[in-house]
Write a structure and sequence with these properties.
alpha+beta, GMP Synthetase, Chain A, domain 3, 3-stranded mixed sheet, 27% strand, 40% helix, Ribosomal Protein S8, Chain: A, domain 1
Length: 202
């Protein structure tokens, strides 16, 4: 358990009950007063781990529980960015969605929920390593299309890509002296074109 909500006659009493239930000290806890006990109501607090890892895990578990989905959650800190990888077995496809759309929506929800409590924390989300696999696929495809452009001297157009996917392609080919990339189209799914820097001489 990473989070609990408890009631008491006073805020202090509710906090103590919460800390005892979680088995953590006051210094280790993130405390949110949900009701201060005025107007003849019981005081109610929400208490969780102060560290970002525990709070992120609790939010992800809460969202998944609303969907009646159980999953393993791995969280790692990479240079100040928390990478949250959810593995939900048969539900991975559902959580990823078409072209990763549901995954990005889940990430947006997670960021919005945590923004108020952890405004300094940056979060990237993955489902069953989908984004990692997609990254590797786009790097490989970028290089393959670059080779085709060099061979034929003709431009090659990618399938429509999301913004972060276009960034992967641009970055992969940025230092290639024989080709350059540019974006064309409108809307969220814009397209990248790989073009030769010099026209091929027949």
């Amino acid at each position: 358990m990473n989070y609990t909500e408890e009631e008491g006659k006073t805020v202090e009493e509710a906090i103590k009950k919460s800390l005892d239930k979680l088995g953590i000290s006051f210094d280790e806890a993130y405390i949110e007063v949900l009701n201060d006990g005025k107007n003849e109501q019981s005081a109610r607090v929400g208490v969780g781990y102060k560290n970002a890892d525990g709070m992120i895990r609790n939010v992800v578990e809460t969202v998944l529980s609303k969907m009646d989905i159980r999953a393993s959650i791995d969280i790692r800190d990479e240079d100040g960015i928390y990478i949250v990888n959810v593995r939900a077995k048969k539900y991975n496809g559902l959580l990823i969605g078409k072209d990763g759309g549901t995954l990005l929506a889940f990430q947006h929800i997670l960021r919005r929920i945590l923004q108020r409590k952890l405004p300094e924390v940056k979060i990237d989300m993955d489902i069953g390593n989908y984004r990692a696999k997609r990254y590797n696929k786009l790097v490989r495809l970028s290089r393959e299309l670059s080779g085709k452009v060099k061979e034929t001297g003709k431009e090659v157009k990618f399938e429509p890509l999301r913004a972060y996917e276009r960034w992967i392609v641009h970055t992969t080919l940025n230092d290639d002296p024989d080709v350059f990339t540019y974006t064309t189209g409108n809307g969220e799914f814009r397209t990248i074109v790989v073009a030769p820097r010099k026209k091929k001489i027949a």
